[in-house]
């Protein structure tokens, strides 16, 4: 199954970004990015997870932080250059596996109980995001956590807004919102699989 994306959201687009700049969105130092990671960790820190899946892990900054709350973290990105950086960043963590793969084919066969969708949904068309998010949600067990966090600004390489990403997730009949927060830059929703 192939999911179509805009040229600006293609694997080649992202690979070129990472080859030109090792951290093209300043994930390691930006106040917004570090604040987003803090919000994500605060939203999941009330418990530990057996197995987490993080698609679109980029250079692994959030992946490294997730490892402290999860027995295993399975992270993917479709940029080989980003994956090499993420693997180096997480090499000291024996509970992290970082692979070069794309959605939907890169979804692990394991039964993960935490799905982290961070800054990824708006790179898909509404139809593709609905299809991918439904596939992901339908593959996890009852009681699993879905954590979504997206920027609310506008960018030429986004197909849909951060709010649209979350509204599509919230429309899934097997998800119930457990926690929400929003500021002028970001929206975060923690959902439970029914």
From TrEMBL:
Keywords: Methyltransferase, Transferase
Record-given protein name: SAM-dependent methyltransferase
């Amino acid at each position: 199954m192939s999911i179509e994306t805009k040229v600006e959201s293609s694997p080649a687009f992202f690979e070129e970004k990472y080859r030109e700049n090792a951290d093209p969105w300043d994930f390691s130092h930006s106040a917004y990015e570090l604040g987003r990671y803090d919000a994500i960790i605060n939203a999941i820190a009330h418990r530990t997870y057996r197995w987490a899946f993080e698609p679109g892990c980029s250079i692994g900054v959030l992946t490294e932080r997730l490892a402290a709350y999860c027995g295993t973290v399975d992270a993917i990105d479709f940029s080989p250059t980003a994956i090499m950086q993420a693997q180096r960043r997480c090499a000291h963590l024996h509970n992290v596996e970082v692979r070069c793969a794309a959605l939907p084919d890169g979804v692990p066969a394991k039964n993960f109980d935490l799905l982290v969708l961070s800054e990824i949904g708006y790179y898909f068309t509404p139809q593709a995001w609905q299809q991918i998010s439904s596939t992901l949600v339908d593959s996890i067990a009852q009681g699993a956590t879905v954590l979504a966090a997206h920027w609310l600004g506008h960018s030429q390489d986004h197909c849909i807004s951060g709010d649209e990403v979350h509204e599509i997730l919230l429309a899934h009949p097997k998800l119930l919102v457990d926690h929400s927060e929003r500021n002028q830059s970001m929206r975060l929703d923690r959902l439970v699989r029914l």
